[in-house]
Amino acid sequence: xxxxxxxxxxxxxxxxxxxxxxxxxxxxxxxxxxxxxxxxxxxxxxxxxxxxxxxxxxxxxxxxxxxxxxxxxxxxxxxxxxxxxxxxxxxxxxxxxxxxxxxxxxxxxxxxxxxxxxxxxxxxxxxxxxxxxxxxxxxxxxxxxxxxxxxxxxxxxxxxxxxxxxxxxxxxxxxxxxxxxxxxxxxxxxxxxxxxxxxxxxxxxxxxxxxxxxxxxxxxxxxxxxxxxxxxxxxxxxxxxxxxxxxxxxxxxxxxxxxxxxxxxxxxxxxxxxxxxxxxxxxxxxx
Length: 287
Description:
By secondary structure, this protein is of the alpha/beta class.
């Protein structure tokens, strides 16, 4: 019997993950009262049970702590029940945005301060996060990408990507992405904005892409950048980093940065033990 404990920061996608696991054939139980968890584990491990895959969602609320959950998990381990922990996380600003969209109170703070709730919950959850077998950062993940990652881990039984790498193109005129860990300026390349017929195109269009990549310096930049990123990634993984955001900026975030972000993505996809996605932050600004 396979048991997956699904937990993490409120708003990071636990509910979505539970639905996906249910679609993948897991028997899902969410928000079971902590005192009932050992009994539940005992029931699902009964010999001849028809249930072979279970996902159990656990949340921290005002009256619960990470230590209490850890004690319960230790108790079911003593019963001989093995399990894996899936922890879902996201950047504070993304969690705040999601809560504003739903207009819900944060479960860890009833005063109405979402940030205070996030701070309190993050401190409470740190111990559980450290014990997690899988940590997935959903800050930049599309629902489709989260589903693919869960299927890869829990259905196809493939290797877990402990580091999620996001390549973000942006325009300096609109500001550097706050979540960026590394920022690279590609304004040293000629700007297609001033070339006839390209002003209203983007780096996703072949004429702009061919123009930008037609300069020898663009290829040299990519060679050096790829080499550095490939050096950094295994060292970040070794140090326990879960998210790496690489910002590539030009003036408006539509031509050069988009082209080079796409090119870096193509070079690095499917070539390492990391998840990879590309986001074009300012490509539609002013359109």
